Here is the input.
Amino acid sequence: MKKLLFGIVVAFGIYACGGGGESSGGGATEQTQQTQQEAKATSSGEIEIKDTLAWVGPEGAPVKSVELGPLNQELAKKGAELFKLKCTACHKIDQRYIGPALKGVTKRRNPAWIMNQILDPAFMIEHDPITRELLAEYHTRMTFQNVTKDDARAILEYFRWIDEKGTEP
Ligand code: HEC
Here is the structure.
């Protein structure tokens, strides 16, 4: 996790130096500040999205990888039911609510990461840089909804269906 954050900061550092141009007289302090601001300003922007698609979660999270087959409508339907039952108190598909809108989540997050967020949100809030950033933005802690690994996999399939078909399964 530290590695990832470091990677992002370094990337921004290079970007800031390369694009900054004029700041050559400013000295090291000014440049560091500029780099930090740059990282903050774009912390939920493109560079993070690119990085987070590969990020499965920190050491100790329950799921390390997920095998995705072709879309499975039965599984997606099961996921849709679970989602309505257990998640809609805080989430909508299309709109920000108490938590983030979940449309497009499979385009911005790794499937294993999504399952980890569902299966152990408390662990993720504690250890995962993306979840911590979401917490800072939403000011609410997602809570475990008593789902099994199979349930989480079905919900993931539902999100895949939404993102690939653009409709309910
Ligand atoms: C108590 C409200 C609450 C409930 C219930 C809840 N969530 Fe969340 N969820 C949040 C909040 C707030 C965040 C962002 C910060 C965090 O993780 O605490 C979040 C984040 C997420 C994310 C990451 C979104 C992103 O943009 O990367 C996913 C995926 C997610 N939730 C799925 C679910 C699913 C699936 C369920 C049902 C099993 C669920 N949540 C139940 C509040 C909730």
Notes: The two ends are 35 Å apart (CA to CA).
